[in-house]
Amino acid sequence: MDFNGLAQQFTEFYYNQFDSDRSQLGNLYRDESMLTFETTQLQGTKNIVEKLTSLPFQKVTHRITTLDAQPASPSGDVLVMITGDLLIDEEQNAQRFSQVFHLIPEGNSYYVFNDIFRLNYSA
Amino acid sequence: MDFNGLAQQFTEFYYNQFDSDRSQLGNLYRDESMLTFETTQLQGTKNIVEKLTSLPFQKVTHRITTLDAQPASPSGDVLVMITGDLLIDEEQNAQRFSQVFHLIPEGNSYYVFNDIFRLNYSA
């Protein structure tokens, strides 16, 4: 699969899993993985899953607006940047977000090495 | 310098150079560098500089809202995600943007391997 197809497949899987049961996202991270979620920086599968599951909302929906990918290394790494909308619980207004994933190949799959997430606040 | 300091220094230099004379940004790219600017994908210093200099505005100002960095490899690569505002020519309303840089060390400096830029359109 080319890097664009991989990026799209990964991102759809990630947000579907996040929105249905984010406690299961641990399979996508490793002990060296890093997550920046707003101003919080974490490393390692356990810390990352704890952070994601502790986020204070019950229902969440990610809607992708743009998805762009590039090869990030000769060994098959892929960089993905997503912008989109986040709908939380019963709120009517979506929040804009930006997120980047750096994916590293492992066997027939990929894991997340870098993950940076930011809401886009209005100036 | 730690990766946070490097990311901040690089980003300030990049946007200052972009906003004052973007024809000089070529020094920051190499032939293997990639730029995704909105829906356009380019590779190589020459193509990237041609794209940046052909953008249809005279005056431009980048204002950083958030800047987040992570180490991206054992060899010193750094990943930076920026969200911010773009002020173009005489327009009164800023446009929101998101950008990611993957920086690779080279001697005492860094060059841009991956560069993805997107305006954040309202849904």
Please outline what is shown here.
2 copies of one chain form a homodimer. Chain A is of the alpha+beta class and 123 residues long. Chain A has helices at 3-21, 45-54, and strands spanning 29-37, 40-43, 60-71, 78-88, 95-106, 109-119.
Account of the protein in words:
Chain A has a six-stranded mixed sheet, covered by helices on one side. The longest helix of chain A is centred in the N-terminal third of the chain and has 19 residues, at 3-21. The mean pLDDT of chain A is 95. Chain A is an alpha+beta fold and 123 residues long. Chain A is 24% helix and 48% strand. Chain A has one domain (3-119): Roll (Nuclear Transport Factor 2, Chain: A). Chain A has helices spanning 3-21, 45-54, and strands at 29-37, 40-43, 60-71, 78-88, 95-106, 109-119. Chain A contains two helices and six strands; from the N terminus they run αββαββββ. The A-B interface holds A 34, 36, 41, 63, 65-66, 68, 70-73, 79, 81, 83, 85, 94, 96, 98, 100, 102, 113-114, 116, 118, 120-123 and B 34, 36, 41, 63, 65-66, 68, 70-73, 79, 81, 83, 85, 94, 96, 98, 100, 102, 113-114, 116, 118, 120-123.
